[in-house]
Structure formats: C-alpha cells, structure tokens
Amino acid sequence: MQRELKWLRAGFQFLGAVAPNVTGRIALNLFLTPRKRPISAKAQQTMQQADQITVAHGSRQLAVYIWDNEGPTVLLVHGWESNASGMRGFVRVLHQQGFRVVAFDGPAHGRSTGKQTNFIDYSGAIETVIKAVGPVQAVIAHSFGAAAALFTLSREPSLGVERVVSIGAPSRLQEMVDIWTAFVGMTRSSVAEMRRKLVDRVGLPLEGIAVATAVSQLTIPGLIIHDQADTVVPYTHAEAIHSQWRTSTLVTTQGLDHRGPLQDREVLRQVAAFLAEPLLVG
User: Are 93 and 268 in contact (CB under 8 A)?
Assistant: First the structure.
C-alpha cells in the first residue's frame, strides 16, 4: 500500500507539472471510482440471513438486503468503499427489538452495478431505496453515507423519516476533496482542474454541498456519533454539523477511530435506545 501510494504521488506530481488538465481528469475518475472490498466469512453469515432484492436506480441496479420483521423500518447506509455488510453490527440488535432492518450497497459498491458514483448520485440512491422499501422510520448512516443521508433528508422532508443517526459524517464535500487531493499529492493547478470537472459532473458547485448548512433545515431528532480522534474525518466536522442541527444530540467516543463505532457494543446500545424512544408530539 505504501509503495503504491508513493508511486501514485510521484505520478501526480510529474504529470501535474506538465499537463494539469489531463491530471485533473485522471484524478477525478480515480476519486469517483470506489474500490471493491471483500466481505468476510463472518459478515457473509449475517448478509445471507437477509432477503435480497434489486431496486432500479436509473439505468443501474441497487442490491438491497431486508431482515424482515413486524416493526418499523430502519435503513442502514454505509460509507465510501464499504458495502451493506459494513453496517451489520446494527442488524441483530435492531432486529431483536422488532425493527425491520434494510441495507443496500451504494451505486458502484458491493453487488450494486456501476463503476463510478458521486455525492449527488449517492444521495439519489438513498431516496430511491427509501421510496422502494418505505415507509422508513429511521436512518443509520456512516461517513460519506451519513453526509449523503443528511443532505437528502434535509432536502426531502416528504420522505417521512422520523429520526437519524449520523456516525463519522464529513460536514462539507469541499473538505473531502481537499483531504483526498492532499493525500495523493496533487499540484494546485491539477486540483483546480479536478474541481472544475467535478462540478460539471455533479451539477452543483462544491460550496453548495455543505452538510453543516443543510442540516439547519432538519427538525427531526438526530444522534451524531463521532470519535474524538477520528483519523479520517476530524471531530470538528461533527461539531460543525451539531451546531447547525438544532434537534441533534452529539455523542463523543474515545479510541474507536472512524469505523470502530459500527461494532462497538456501547454505541450499538445507545443507537438502539435512541430509536426505541417514543417521539414527542406537539
């Protein structure tokens, strides 16, 4: 991995100096193409217990997993370069409480079709799945998926979701781009070209995709969970989202990093308790 990263950075530095336009195009395609991750045997056991269907999302097919039950539906939304199995920690505890649990592989992730996706596409996929399997009472989402879920629900209150759990969500797409381009060592001119092409692709200026601004429209209860020492999405992102989301509660974890909360017993307990609370009326 370190050797591959070293060569990638060297390549971006060299090509960026002589052909920033080409470098920007290559970088964008790489940025929008998630790597497929294998599913462990233990995770497969949980996934095989679900009913599996496909839902059309434009010209592509989304793989959807349903652990049926009599209670309200909870939708699980995974992060970038993960898949539905990454959210499996919530399945058992919620199913035992009587919830119907639904998860899906995002566009170009897991068993879903497609090679590339982006924030707006991912947001649209969440809306597609909610409409296909709904009504959905609650959404639990992680990282990139959490940002997309919050953005979607802020814009589409008619979807009827009553509460949300956001875990390790980034607050702005622009900062996600900054983190990634710095990580691969792109030159300033190449980054500018990549940004321009990304705006053309998603159809919105990057400044317009700000989760921390969008959540100010949310009036439903929210639980924000973020680790103090998250090495992928800094804790300041959670603070920014919480400061604008008036009906949210911020829970700070210690020593779990970015993905640890998805399997942590105390986090699972807190999430289950949050979803089981009766909604206040009036």
Answer: yes
CA–CA separation, 108 and 227 (whole Å) = 28
Closest by Cα among 254, 46, 75 to 159: 75
Nearest to 86 by CA among 108, 109, 69: 109
Q: What is the pLDDT of residues 236-258, one digit of tens each?
A: 999 999 999 999 999 999 999 99
Q: Where are the domains of the chain?
A: 1-31+188-209, 45-172+213-276
The domain 45-172+213-276 having CATH identifier 3.40.50.11030: the answer here is no
Q: What is the pLDDT of residues 49-103, one digit of tens each?
A: 999 999 999 999 999 999 999 999 999 999 999 999 999 999 999 999 999 999 9
Q: What is the pTM of this model?
A: 0.93
Contacts 24+ apart (CB under 8 A), 6-12: 8/184, 8/185, 9/184, 9/185, 10/185, 12/184, 12/185, 12/186, 12/187, 12/190
CA distance 117 to 127: 15
Cα 77 to Cα 80, 133, 142, distances in angstroms: 10, 14, 6
List the one residue out of 211, 102, 218, 209 whose CA is nearest residue 157: 218
**Chain centroid offset of residue 146 CA:** 4
Q: Determine contact, residues 214/154, Cβ cutoff 8 Å.
A: yes
